[in-house]
Here is the input.
Amino acid sequence: MRFSTLLNREDFMNNPLKAIIKRFIWRTRWLFNKSPWILTLPNGSKIETAKLGAGALIYYLGYSEPEIAYFVNYFLKPGMTFVDIGAHLGEYCILSSPLVEKSGKIFAFEPNPDIYPFLTRNIYRNSLINVVLDNHAVSSKEGEIIFQIHKEASMSSLKFNTLQKVENIVREIHVSTINLDNYFQNYEKEINLIKVDVEGAETEVIIGAKNLCSKSKGDAPTWIIEYNPGTAISTGRDAKNILYLLWEFKYYIYELKKGDVKSQFQPSLSFITNPPNNFSTLVASKVNLYL
Here is the structure.
């Protein structure tokens, strides 16, 4: 990890010595023990991880992206439906399950065959009966596509064209795809929150959810979406299209900031004409969330 990155980590800013010690323990542990490590999340639940970037961040910060955890914890209520696309180890499923309670439902999609067993074990380990697991990739249409498995599992992605150039690819496999409109066409409840972390395929996910996005204010889902211009370019896409597409559906767009829940929304309608140049986590909603 670059020192500049460490300086900006929430745990380092709060307690530099503790942050450095935890990073030393993480690295040392894997030198002597290669077996999966079961960590404890802030809500007391257990999560199993291999030597992964996401696992390291969970160990350091509590969640791999605490600002997403803050928002999920703030937004979800009993009876709601949460869709986690790119669920990875399942940390947000584990967080959200008690929030939506037995009357709610969580759908977790993870196509990486190296990670899906971890997701499965983590859901069963915590006895989460309101979570539905699915190893399909989510895209704009149903079918089959090449999936590139990256050395760092969380950076694995769909391959949409032969010119797509991504470094550190371990292997390529074929995976089946679904789209959200077809998957949920007979689902009787509203989809309240969708989290998308798909390494450059975000626009494809949204295109496959046009019917959901076309719903009226109050019925359309709220989205948490990774906005990464660099990743988009490597997959032959333009991250700005995420913003343009959401605006077509009359969404408000915010950048999700670190910090207290009530201060992490920044009105970002200007993103349409002046999109950020760097990685951001966006929240899109048809309800004005600026508090």
In short: The first strand starts at residue 37 and ends at 40. Residues 260-273 have pLDDT under 50 and may be disordered.
